[in-house]
């Protein structure tokens, strides 16, 4: 019997143990998740300290670091969970979006392991994975809910109509919100990773610089971050040219409010329009303390429940990949061993 005949005859388990593998950027991550909701163990090996020397992620360094780390990450997660390879029921792996060379390391490892264990391989979209982190944060969470995705590559408001079906209400017309944080960090002379450093600087400042409120009340659920980013750049350059001092922390704080208030407001608008009582937030920017505080406060006033994954589940991790993999597993959406890595994947 060949691999596929074996896989097609496997029964779908009620509480499968899924190994998640993530290698799309600078974190090599492995996690074991049971029944799509319970994290048994996680291991994350990051090359971000090495990357910081270059001011951002260098793809070749990321690929090499994944090659060194992938097997340790998987073995580490198994050891923490007290499990063996033979306890794994399926392998979920990020196939895109991300850096091609980086993705290929995790994907090749996952294919070889799935083949050798005769368990299903499940290719998972990194972006859908970020949204699926909500199912780990709230084990009772069921669609429908509003999904607010705020990551380095995507910004979107969705209605999660069913586990597999997302309706896109709007997204960014240019830069993603995380990308805007990273670019502003560079302008302010902050080191990689940009987002958390802008947040830390913003804590020492005040929201007292007028910046454009991108598409507020306009553009439906769409966003545009390039005008805001340019406004920050212009503000700094004008002061620099005149030799004037300015308060960097105030600029960081004003940018952060302009960038994030609109996300919160549009997600709440969507919940109201679609009569949905829950908003789940996902993606690296969901780790931002100001965003977390604002959405919690504004939703409490309107009796909307907010699902905010703990910060390590907002940034890249493999548990979210296993959680999304579970949704595909129960629907027998297994991947072919010819599955290739993709630099871009669409959200819906
Ligand atoms: O969601 P993610 O892994 O990106 C994609 O999958 O595309 O998150 C990375 C992004 C980066 O742009 C990073 O600057 C941003 O999330 N980020 C933050 C914070 N932590 C990470 N942005 C603002 N505040 C933070 N605390
Ligand atoms: Zn990510």
The N- to C-terminal Cα distance equals 35 Å
The percent range for strand residues is 15-25%
Q: From the 3D structure, determine the CATH topology of the largest domain.
A: Nucleotidyltransferase, domain 5
- Runs in which pLDDT lies below 50 for 5 or more consecutive residues are none
**What is the oligomer described by this structure?**
single chain
Task: Work out the radius of gyration.
Answer: 21 Å
Number of helices, counting only DSSP H or I runs of 4 residues or more: 12
Shape: globular
CATH superfamily of the largest domain: ATPase, nucleotide binding domain
Largest sheet: 5 strands, mixed
Q: How helix-rich are the residues, as a percent range? A: 40-55%
Structural category: alpha/beta
The CATH architecture of the largest domain is 2-Layer Sandwich
What is the β-strand count? 10
Class of the largest domain, according to the CATH hierarchy? Answer: Alpha Beta
Which ligands does the model contain, each kind named once? 5'-O-[(R)-(carboxyoxy)(hydroxy)phosphoryl]adenosine, zinc ion
* Mean residue pLDDT: 96
Integer count of domains: 2
Using brief descriptors, characterize the structure shown.
348 residues; alpha/beta; Nucleotidyltransferase, domain 5; 2 domains; five-stranded mixed beta sheet; 10 strands; 18% strand; binds 5'-O-[(R)-(carboxyoxy)(hydroxy)phosphoryl]adenosine; binds zinc ion
